[in-house]
Amino acid sequence: MSKLSFDRILQSQGYGTRKYCRSLIEDGEVTINGVVHDNYKELIETDGLVFNLFDEDVVYREHVYIALFKPQNYECSRKPSHHPGVLTLLPEELTWRDVQPVGRLDHDTTGMLLMSDDGAFIHAQSSPKRHVPKIYQATTAEPVTDELIAQLLAGVQLHDEPAPLAAQTCIKRGEHQLEIVLEQGKYHQVKRMLAAAGNHCSALHRSAIGGLELASLEIEEGDWCYLTAEQLALLAPA
Ligand code: URA
User: What does pTM read for this prediction?
Assistant: First the structure.
């Protein structure tokens, strides 16, 4: 159980500056169970809190954990240069909360991108020590051969890497389709590994992270959803 003043609650949920949140409350714009609460100093229990603002019910969340179905031609960097940033796909409240991507996908890679405003979660998920498997579906320019799979499983040497990097799993899914599972998240890793093994990645999609499959979330490309505790537990072993 934890109580916070109403203005802090509104601000923490991404509704703007403290001053603006106070004015929303004082103007009677925010209701709880249909009752206007216009004193911004009122201490309100956050556990299970749902308030209504601009005709929308908002569930209070201490932190947000999001999966985005990233489309092509969006950049994950904080300062995108050639394409819009992935944050532009989220509602304003979430960007006010300083939601950030967990790791990066290339601008032309599609698929599951985790995002959160919980620094500890971002750090833990990105940590190489955690060995979170990332499942990619790669389209290859040259046919997928047994030799290619053997090379990727044995490990390929990339420039600037001290030791060869190996795929955890590699499955041929079609003449030019390869499912590749990586535990690391090095820069352009799938593309560079395929190039080092004599092929070329012409399209890349991340279909799952740990045991959480993008398809199970039933979101369209460009859409996002909050992750439940059960879905978060599927991401990786603790
Ligand atoms: N490997 C790549 O080459 N690109 C990505 O976006 C992700 C993994």
Answer: 0.93
